[in-house]
Known about the structure:
By secondary structure, the chain is an alpha/beta fold. The protein has 2 domains: 2-108 and 171-208, Response regulator (Rossmann fold), CATH 3.40.50; 111-166. The chain has helices at residues 14-25, 46-54, 68-73, 82-91, 102-106, 111-134, 140-166, 181-208; strands at residues 2-8, 29-35, 76-79, 99-101. It has a 4-stranded parallel β-sheet, sandwiched between helices. Helix 1 (14-25) links the parallel strand 1 (2-8) and strand 2. Helix 1 (14-25) crosses helix 8 (181-208) and helix 6 packs antiparallel against helix 7. The longest helix has 28 residues, at 181-208. The protein is elongated.
Amino acid sequence: xxxxxxxxxxxxxxxxxxxxxxxxxxxxxxxxxxxxxxxxxxxxxxxxxxxxxxxxxxxxxxxxxxxxxxxxxxxxxxxxxxxxxxxxxxxxxxxxxxxxxxxxxxxxxxxxxxxxxxxxxxxxxxxxxxxxxxxxxxxxxxxxxxxxxxxxxxxxxxxxxxxxxxxxxxxxxxxxxxxxxxxxxxxxxxxxxxxxxxxxxxxxxxxxx
Length: 209
């Protein structure tokens, strides 16, 4: 059984919604949630309670602060935003191989865009490394001339990288905190869609594994 931990800020809105959605979609996956700045024992947002009452979804929740025990319990640690992911990786860098944003892990058609971006970024770094190696023993006017030539050649690559970066979709789940019930409904749908894609990836990896 795959163990999934969802992580947001206070563990009162997004990650509890993700937890309950997954629990109601699959009995093959165990789900929990936590927050990077949660107050242990705090209740879920009232809007979340109202939304789940509307959907007749059983729900009882108290917030939990993300700690090492929870982080290590999970097979997948899925954050709601890239900033949450960065905080998790700062505190638990050794767990990097299982930490993703929810949308990043669930990505389908967007994967190729990220692959293209990462390939271009790697190509640029390799060219830079080769250039620095090449000019180690070059000085004076020759060095400056080579630097100017290299920078001119790199401009096209950097423009391509910037264009690829601008085409990347956001990997963040929208934050409804303090918003209307309609904003919570939108976020709920966003999370639900990502979880359906996530489950499809888990099934495929189970079949391949």
